[in-house]
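The aim of this short unit is practical: by the end, you should be able to scan a pair of folded records and say something sensible about each. We start with the first protein, listed as its amino acid sequence and then its structure tokens.
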Amino acid sequence: MHTYNIHDAKTHLSRLVEQAAKGEPFVIAKAGKPMVKVIAIDAPEPAQMRRIGFMAGQIEVPDDFDRMSEEPIRQQFEGEA
């Protein structure tokens, strides 16, 4: 996400608003300190965003997951024994 100082934001406001409307939010800073974040009005709220782990408890990883296909992979690196 890009950060613009107030002067640059005022100078390029039309272009920046168009970008934000297309899903590219930006931050306006004053003296290097972020002040506001500009996002599209129809952008999903943070609570609506899907997060990693949304399927917790719905899938299971086998106990031997880290050893699955071990032999074929070993053979590819070491050659046929």
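Turning to the second protein, read its sequence before its tokens, just as you did above.
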Amino acid sequence: MEIFGYIASVLIGVSLGLIGGGGSIFTVPVLVYLFGIDAFLATEYSLFIVGISSAIGSVSYFKSGLVDSKTALVFGIPSVLSIFLTRHFLLPIIPDDIFKIGSFVLQKNTFLLLIFAGLMLIASYKMIRKNNKLTIKTEDSQSNNIFLAAGEGSVVGFLTGLVGAGGGFMIIPALVNLLKMPMKIAVGTSLVIISFNSLIGFVSSEGHHKIDWMFLGSISVLAIIGIFIGTQLSKKINGEKLKPAFGWFILVMGVSIILKEIAF
């Protein structure tokens, strides 16, 4: 199974480079089901893998002027606060056995994976559906939308801290629909936000587990290779056109995780 895990690690980067998100949606299932890593540790590894690959992938967008730094801060500051609070105060108080009904025991790892599967279903819906963008843009609505974007940044930070999801599937729609940002700039800005959030999340939780740096480094290198591939493909292929295909794939993965964790 590990060989499929290494191949999938490249796809993590390809997704990030091509559509500015979706990488973290692949990462945790790959680590848990293909490499057999504990779900809680997988969320920590995911933060590093997605964070470092997104940071490197964002460099080319910076050079091309395709990053809105101000918007990255609007998203980033509330996200970091949410990540810190979630990793330091919420996760530690979640018990190993959350509740028991008869012979069924909902354990912490299963709980995290089910939350992650739910996020996958939401992400798949956002990727599959057709986007009807608004074209009306006023000063007042733009100001209000910035506040909405900051609020969504807090939600993204919570999810990043809880399950190691970078939140690109939420960031991209917010940048495009709320702030009326062109797609390519939204992708570059999303990579900056994801890298910032994920690496802060990793640093804030580092030390809770013993890190296998050799393994983590090898997966990160493969994801970085993938993000270079995805970035190059984005110059020739419209990532928006590939989103539905990514969406259906993520939908199947999400349903499979739910069935595996509950039904089998």
